[in-house]
Write a structure and sequence with these properties.
The protein has 254 residues and is an alpha/beta fold. It has 9 helices and 8 strands. Bound molecules: nickel (II) ion (NI).
Length: 254
C-alpha cells in the first residue's frame, strides 16, 4: 500500500475523475491526500472526500492566492476544518519565484494560517519556492506545529533544518529527473523522514515527465527511493505509509 500525501484532483485537469481514482487504486496507491488550495478547489476537494473512501484532504490558501484572500475567507476556512476527512492545512507557505514584491503580504497570510494550525492542532503542508530563509523563520514562530515540506527540492542542510523542526520531507517526481540531485538528500535523511507524493497533475516522474501526472505514477517515485537507499520497495511503502499515518493522524480513520 502506498499513500500519495500530496496531490490535486480537479475537474479542470481530468475528464473522468472516477477513472483516475480507479487507476490510482489499481496501481497500489489506495489513499490520496488531496489538497484544495484556492477557494474553488477547497469546495471541490470537500465533495471528493465525501464521494471517495480513498480520499482525505488538506485545505488552505496557497501563497499565489495572497491578493484574493481576506479575513472573512480565513474565518470560513476555520469552519471548514471541521469537515470529516480534513487532515491538515495546506498547501500554505511562500513563493518568491515570480518576484518578492508581495513578500510581506505572503508572510502575513502564511502566519495567519499557521496560527489556525496551531489552534486546531493540525499538521501543515508547506509550499516553499525560492523562499527557504523566510519559510524557516515563520515555522520557528510556531514550534508546536508540524507538517510536510511538500515537493522538497533544496539542499541536504535545509532538509535537516526542517527535520529538526519536526517536519517530514515530501519527495516527488523530481527525484527521478536525470538532472536532479534530490537523491542525495534522500540518501542523507533516510526513509524515516520521507513522505511520498506526486503533486499531480504536475511534475510527473520519469518516464512520464512532462505528461499529465496522477497518483498512479507514485510507485515510480517509491522505486527510485528504494533503489537510492538500497532497500526494498515494500520497506519504502511500509515506512512512508507509517510516516503519513502518524503525521496526518490517519490511524483512527484508515
Ligand atoms: Ni501542490
Amino acid at each position: 500500500m502506498l499513500i500519495d500525501t500530496h496531490c490535486h484532483i480537479s475537474e479542470d485537469d481530468y475528464d473522468d475523475i472516477d477513472l483516475v481514482i480507479k487507476e490510482n487504486i489499481n496501481s497500489g496507491v489506495d489513499k490520496m491526500i488531496v489538497s484544495g488550495c484556492e477557494e474553488k478547489t477547497i469546495y471541490e476537494v470537500i465533495e471528493l472526500s465525501k464521494k471517495y473512501n480513498s480520499i482525505y484532504i488538506t485545505i488552505g490558501y496557497h501563497p499565489d492566492q495572497v491578493n484574493f484572500v481576506d479575513d472573512k475567507m480565513l474565518n470560513k476556512l476555520e469552519l471548514l476544518l471541521k469537515t470529516p476527512k480534513v487532515v491538515g492545512i495546506g498547501e500554505i507557505g511562500l513563493d518568491y519565484h515570480y518576484g518578492k514584491e508581495n513578500r510581506d503580504a505572503q508572510i502575513n497570510l502564511f502566519r495567519k494560517q499557521m496560527k489556525i494550525a496551531e489552534k486546531y492542532h493540525l499538521p501543515v503542508v508547506i509550499h516553499s519556492r525560492d523562499a527557504t530563509k523566510d519559510t524557516i523563520s515563520v515555522l520557528k514562530e510556531f514550534p508546536s506545529v508540524v507538517g510536510d515540506i511538500h515537493c522538497f527540492s533544496g539542499s541536504m542542510e535545509t532538509a535537516k533544518i526542517y527535520i529538526s523542526l519536526g517536519y517530514k520531507i515530501g519527495i516527488g517526481g523530481v527525484v527521478t529527473f536525470k538532472n536532479s540531485n534530490l537523491y542525495k538528500v534522500v540518501e542523507a535523511i533516510g526513509v524515516s523522514s520521507i513522505l511520498l507524493e506526486t503533486d499531480a497533475p504536475y511534475l510527473a516522474p520519469v518516464p512520464f515527465r512532462g505528461k499529465l501526472n496522477s497518483s498512479k505514477y507514485l510507485p515510480y517515485i517509491a522505486k527510485k527511493v528504494a533503489d537510492t537507499l538500497n532497500i526494498s520497495f515494500d520497506e519504502v511503502a511500509k515506512v512512508t505509509s507509517i510516516n503519513a499515518k502518524s503525521l496526518f493522524d490517519l490511524k483512527s480513520i484508515l
